[in-house]
Design a protein that fits this description.
homodimer; alpha/beta; Rossmann fold; seven-stranded parallel sheet; 13 helices; 53% helix
Amino acid sequence: MPVDLNKLLQGDPRAIARAITCIENDRENSARILKTIFPHTGHAFVVGVTGAPGSGKSTLVDRLARFYLNGQKKSVGIVAVDPTSPFTGGAILGDRIRMQNVALEEGIFIRSMATRGFLGGLSRATHDAVSILDAAHKEVILVETVGVGQDEIDVIKVAHVNLVLLVPGMGDDIQAIKAGIMEIADVFVINKADREGVERIEAQLLAMLSISPRPDGWVPPLVRTIATLNEGINPLAAAIESYARFAKDSALFIQKRRTHARERLLELLGEQLVGKVVHEHLENGLLDQYVELVASRQSDPYSVVDEIISGFCGETSQNRKGSGL
Amino acid sequence: MPVDLNKLLQGDPRAIARAITCIENDRENSARILKTIFPHTGHAFVVGVTGAPGSGKSTLVDRLARFYLNGQKKSVGIVAVDPTSPFTGGAILGDRIRMQNVALEEGIFIRSMATRGFLGGLSRATHDAVSILDAAHKEVILVETVGVGQDEIDVIKVAHVNLVLLVPGMGDDIQAIKAGIMEIADVFVINKADREGVERIEAQLLAMLSISPRPDGWVPPLVRTIATLNEGINPLAAAIESYARFAKDSALFIQKRRTHARERLLELLGEQLVGKVVHEHLENGLLDQYVELVASRQSDPYSVVDEIISGFCGETSQNRKGSGL
């Protein structure tokens, strides 16, 4: 099914859905789509939401989405990249009903990202999905991730503001806060704040923040929420807004965007190069033959890759000579 | 510091440590090391251990390591790929003492893998670390991972047997078992089995296993352990052994190894191609210029990558013509 770019730019949900399916599966068409929509992107405000399974992340995302939609009259897109989320269908007995409820609401588009396939990076696909929602005039895009794996952390580098959800008394408290997660938290959300231990986790967080302050001088606020009761959403939105204002003039934020652009570029470069080599040089079962060499332990992967690369470069050279270049 | 390959093959811990540091940081030398040691690999028995933070994974790995070392007189290597593990130093207030205790013991080598850097895949680095331990005559290699992210799941595809740890009453019980994790579990370990809810989680697992049986016909056994008390380790080792015997003749297992070889080959191909392009074609600040184009939104990453690739292919062609090819 071809992607109708005009409909996509008008925000048509089916066109958005098709475009995202395309970027997940079709290397050549996805490059074309992303190049075409590029001039229409750069307007959305992207919020990353990271939290362990059971932290109530999906419910919070749901509440925030309704806040922006109903309270601020903004169109909202949600990208869920969480193998444990009911959105992504990872949970086996999950309540999928909720997902449909949100999806049916006017002005909110939800998309769950499949775990990565042959075409490569989950974070590349998520970034591209955000670009598509951006081009489709979603004003606020929420990116939900479990944030434990490296891929999942890379995913939310696309965000302008990152929320990290914690729950009082869950696991080994502060032990559950990973170093990588600490670095990305612009706002801490203490969800399920009616549970015992809320003061304790806040005290631990404050202690950690005072031991290792952020290099940009920002002090991540701690916001209590009870997402199931829709409590604390207004103060949370205010905290998000206040970090966004701060980041606008922060030299470190700009540096962070540059680092992120570099990672994105190198990831995409790898994907496109592999796609090109496989497509142009390893057709007709040649890839399978190389795979068999490795699987049967006749050769090591490094030697096989060397052979593939020198074959490809030689071939490129000959093609170009042949075409008169 | 150069890697002494003879010492590595003799199992010298410092040579192993240096070799692993090298494969994490040095693209060209790592290829050389991996090619050289390849004929010495393929003998180790690799066990993957996956579990959520707080499931007692590190303690279990510790107990299993001692079982193989003291009970079976086998040399043991441990590769920890878990941002929340005290081994990897991800936990902020973690008890690092334990790690040293294990490391000091004769015959056990522990290595934690850093999250991936520029040189690429965590799973590539982990596989290479396993190869190094294999070449260094470690007979049993335990690979520990939190198993939530895609990278972390890819990591344990290197294993011959995969354990998935669950804890009674933790989180939303069965909800915490992700679809991806279910597929990789050859043996379920119910750790902290003295806790309430052990029958419940076992009943849930059995129900799930009967709803979706494995295509290879294997019925993953459920083994209760209390790792802190060293209870259940013998039955666990027996379950591991019994799956290993089953897998030996399983056509699906062989198919799985082939799929895994394919993924590994493509990942390595991407890494090596990017390394080659960056090293040979994007020197002298050219990469920074491209990054700036993307970061400042003057161009989209797809167009920039196209330009880089066509520049590289053209250059390769010219070099070859110039050199008389």
